[in-house]
């Protein structure tokens, strides 16, 4: 509710009560209509105190993202310079894909306060409650072969991990290929979806989901042992606009670095932030389970495991169990 007159009236009188009668008179609406609007605003996350004979007072507003706040902290030339900020959508991946098909420019960013059908990797759902996370999809148009997509996945993980460390101070690391963990629990997931034509990328949608200000009780019970949030880990509220801008700043820098110098420098950065390398892992993938010690990334971005016979096995996709 962007230009709600009732909300504007209460905001203009901070800390004060305004009676239902006065609101109804000033807005020329019935007392029932006032009550209905208050309830609708409550559903959107506004909090009111209602006291009989005194009226209503605004005591809390939802933590809403604002385009200007994000823009003020951007240091990019193209990334996020075109922004779609949505209240609610099924999945920002879908919204970004539609924009891509309509010819939107590289760097267009779609952000939603809430997703009702958030998607994770391998057909899983992604829990995306309102106002507490960063749910966003960036449109990229790299003029490269389809084989570039896995590198883009790793590059995105490095960018997001660096931004999270910078903004929250938390000791975040990357689990291959692109989960961001803090203290062994997942705080962010990345989903790269690509459309190709003749072996070349037509566009990629880099979907990033970060659990920012979720409280322990906001996390579904079945995920509590494996998922966390930046607020839980850092003990403080994190400014989502600052985090979004930091991710975009890092991402554009690394994207340009890749254009100029290829994957080698990105690989070094990824390895430095990795929590996978050096550990015995099991990978659940297309070829069944493979166990071994994670040794390195190869030049294409595949994970190199040393199996129990001492041979190197390259893993191109799958889920890693640490
Ligand atoms: C994963 O770890 O499984 C990937 C999760 C990706 C979630 C993000 S949230 C923004 C974008 N929209 C979606 O529907 N998914 C991605």
UniProtKB/TrEMBL annotation:
One matching Pfam family is BPL_LplA_LipB
Gene Ontology terms for molecular function? biotin--[biotin carboxyl-carrier protein] ligase activity
Q: Does the keyword Nucleus apply?
A: no
What gene, per UniProt, encodes this protein?
A: birA
Q: Which domain of life is it from?
A: Bacteria
- DNA-binding region per UniProt: 20-39
Q: Where is the BPL/LPL catalytic domain?
A: 68-259
Has keyword Glycosyltransferase? no
**Protein family according to the UniProt entry:** Belongs to the biotin--protein ligase family.
Q: Which reaction does it catalyse?
A: biotin + L-lysyl-[protein] + ATP = N(6)-biotinyl-L-lysyl-[protein] + AMP + diphosphate + H(+)
- Please state the Enzyme Commission number of this protein: 6.3.4.15
Its lineage reads: Bacteria, Bacillati, Bacillota, Bacilli, Bacillales
Q: What does this protein do?
A: Acts both as a biotin--[acetyl-CoA-carboxylase] ligase and a repressor.
Residues where biotin binds:
115, 119-121, 186
Enzyme class at the top of the EC tree? ligase
Matches recorded under PANTHER family = BIOTIN PROTEIN LIGASE, BIOTIN--PROTEIN LIGASE
What residues form the membrane-spanning segments? none
List the protein's name.
Answer: Bifunctional ligase/repressor BirA
Q: What InterPro entries does this protein's entry cite?
A: aa-tRNA-synth_II/BPL/LPL, Bifunct_BirA, Biotin_CoA_COase_ligase, BPL_C, BPL_LPL_catalytic, HTH_11, Transcriptional_repressor_C, WH-like_DNA-bd_sf
